[in-house]
What does this fold into?
Amino acid sequence: MKTFPALIARIKPHLLWLTLLVVVAVLPLGRSLLSTTEVLSEQNTDVTLHFLYSRAFGFEEMAKGNLPLWNPYIYSGIPYLGQFQSALLYPPNLIFLVLPLATAINWSFALHLFLLGAGMYFWAVFRGLKSAAAFVAGVTAMLGGAVMLHIYAGHLSNVCSIAWIPFVLLGIDGWLKRRHAGWLAVSAAAVALQIYAGHPQYFYYTALVAGLYSVVHLPGTPRVWIAALGLAAIYPVGAMLASAQLIPGITATSEAVRSGGVAYEFSAMFSFPPENFLTLLAPWVFGDMRAVPYWGRCYLWEMSVFAGTGMLVFACFGAGRKLENGGRLRLLIVLGCVVVLALGMHTPLHKILYQVLPGFSSFRGSSKFIIFAALFLALFAGLGFDRLLRREKFPRLLGAALAVLGLLLLGASFLITGDRLMGFVNLIAATKESYLHPAAFEQGTLLAAAQDMAGQSLRVSGGLFLGFAALLYGTNRWRWAVWAVGLAAVAELVVFARGTVATFPLADFTYQPVADFLKNNPGDFRTLNLFNADAAMLLRSENIWGYDPGVLKRYAQLLHLSQGNDPEAANQYLSFRAAHPILAMLRCRYAFVPKEGGQIDVTTMADPFPRFALYSQYRVLADSKAVLGELKSPWFDLRKEVLLETEPVPKPEHETPRHNIRVVDSSTDHWTLEIETDRAALLVMTDSYSQDWRAIALPGSVQSNYTLQPANYALRAIPLAAGKHALRLEYVPRGFREGIALSVITLLVVGVALSWRPLRERLDFDKTA
It folds into this structure.
C-alpha cells in the first residue's frame, strides 16, 4: 500500500516541468484543440485519406456496443480489428467515445506529443540529468521535424506509436542499473502500448533498436547473463500483454497483400536521402510544402531530421560529456547505427537485412529509423544543457566552429542561383524518387520562390548559429546567460513547430452531396469511390476499393486482374480504367468520379450481382492461377458458373434450384440467413473471402455443419443440400478470444508479481548496482 504514495512523492518534484511540457505540447497546436470543426494535419494526407473515416466507423460501432472485427465498407470487406491501425483496443483512444471526431483527433496528437516529451524527460532524469536539462531533451523530442511533420502529414498512428519509444529505453536502462523487475514491466507495457497504438512498423523498428541498445549496453554489466535474460523477457511479455491485438493482427497479415514480404524495390522506397541531412541545419532548404512545394526526394515528413539550431548546438556540447562505463561512446554507437539503418538502400546493409532478417522485408520506408536518431539527438541536447547548468565552460573551439558554420551557411545562401538550383533539382529528379517533376520549375516564379526559400532558410540558420555561439560564450561569465540560451532554444523550436501546423475543415471531407445521393438511391450495392476511397466508412456506403495496406491478397489480385494488371504484382494501389464484369460481380452499381472544382460525377455501372445467390453450375480448378486465368477469359460467364478450388460437399445438382433466401439479421461481423432450396446448390456471397469467416448451423437446419470456401478466387461459397437451412455466417479471427484471455492473464500475473512484497524484494537482488 505504500507503493502508490511513494510513487507520488517521487513524481512531485517533476510536476512543474511536466506541466511546462504540457504547455509546450499545446502551444504549437493552438485553437485547434478547442475546435469541433477544424482537424489537425494538411488536407489530402493520411487523416483525410484514412484515419478520419476509420476512427469514425470503429468508435461509432463501439458506442453502439459492437466491437467491429470486420469492416464491410472498403475492399468489399476487410479485417478491421486485425488491421493494426484501427487501434480499437488502444486505451488513449477512449477519447473517441466521448469527444467529437475532430476534437478527438486533435487531442490525440496533443496527448501523444506530451507523452513523447514526458517519456524523454524521465529517461533523461534517470540518466542523471537535472530537471531543466531533461525538459530541454523532452522539448527537442516533441517539436523537431521528425515528429511535427508527421502531424502535418496526418500520421496519427505514427505519432501514437512513437510516443512510447523513450519508455522502452527507460525500462532497459532501469533494469540494467537497478535490476528490479518493475523496470522490465515499464518496457513491456510500452511495447504493448506500441502494438495497440496501431503502427506495426514502428513496433518492429523499436524492437530492433531496443535489441541493439541492449547489446551495446550489456558489456560490463554485473551478472550479465541475468541482465540479458531480463532484457530478453521484455518483448515476449509485451507481446502477451498485447495479444488481444497482436494475434488478430498476425492472422489478418497472413492473408494481406504484403504477406510473405514485398519486392526489394518496394521495400527500398523511402530510404533517407543523404542530402537531407541538410535539414538538420536548415529545415526548409528543399521547400516548406506551403509557399514552395517540397522538391527533394520522397516526402519531407519522412525525410527531416531538424531538431532546432540551439538544440543541435547543445547536442554537440553534450556529445563531449564523459559518462560512466563508457556511456557516451555507447550512445554514439547506437546513434551511428540508426543513422545507417535510416539510409536504407543507400548502404549495403539494407539488402542484407531484407534477405536475412525475418519480417524486415514486409516494410518499406527505412527512413522511419530517423526518429530514433532524433531521440538520441534530443538526449545529447539535454546532456549539453546539463553541462551548462553544472557550470561547465563552453569550449571556445566549439564556439568558434559554430560561428564558422554560421558564416558558411550565410555565405552559401548568397551563392544559390537559379541555374545551380536547377542543376540540383535535375540531379534529384534523376534518382526517380522526387514527386515534383522538374518541368514544374520551368515556371520562373516557382524556381525563383524555391531559390528564395533555400537562401532564406540558410540565412536564418546561419544567423541562429552565430547568435547561439555568442550566447554560449556568455554562459562562461553570466549565470543568466544559461537560462537565456535555454529559453531561446525552446522558443526556436516552438516557432518552428507552429510553422508546421496545418488544419482543414471537417465539413470539406464529409461529402454531403454524395451522402444525399446515396440516401436518395438506396439499395444493396457497392460503389467505386474514386474521390476518396475510405470515405465509404463515414458514408456507410460499401466500396470495392480502399486505402489500406491490409487489403486481402486474393481480393487485390482479383481487382488487379480486372484492370489488366499482373495479379502476382498486386498491391494496395490500383488505377481503375475499365468496367470489367468482375466489378459487376462485386455488386458495383455506381462510380463516383472527381471533377475539377471539387465536383463529383456519378456514373452508372453494369447491373450488379445480388449479395446472395444460389448456383448449380461450377468447376473445380485446383491451381489458383488457373482460376485467375479463367476469370480473365472473355468467354467465361460469371453469372452462370462458379469456379472453386476444392470439391464442394454436398455437390450441387446441375439444374437450377427453386429457392428463397431471407436475411434475418446482420452486423459488421455476421449474417443470419434462412434459405429454402429444392436442390443441392452453391450459396455464393459477393463479399471478400477470408479464412476466418465460418458458417454455423442453427437449430432447425437440414445440415449440421457447413463449409465456407473461396469462390471465383476471392468471394465466399457455401455448399447447401436440398431443404431448409438456418445458418449464421460470422467472422472471428483465429485466436482472438484466446488473445484476449492471454492479455488479461498476463496483466494479472505481472500485477501480482510487482505487488507481492516477498517476490518484489527477491527480484530487487542488486540494490547496490
Remarks:
- The chain is about 50% helix and 10% strand.
- The radius of gyration is 29 Å.
- Residues 461 and 468 are 10 Å apart (CA to CA).
- The mean pLDDT is 92.
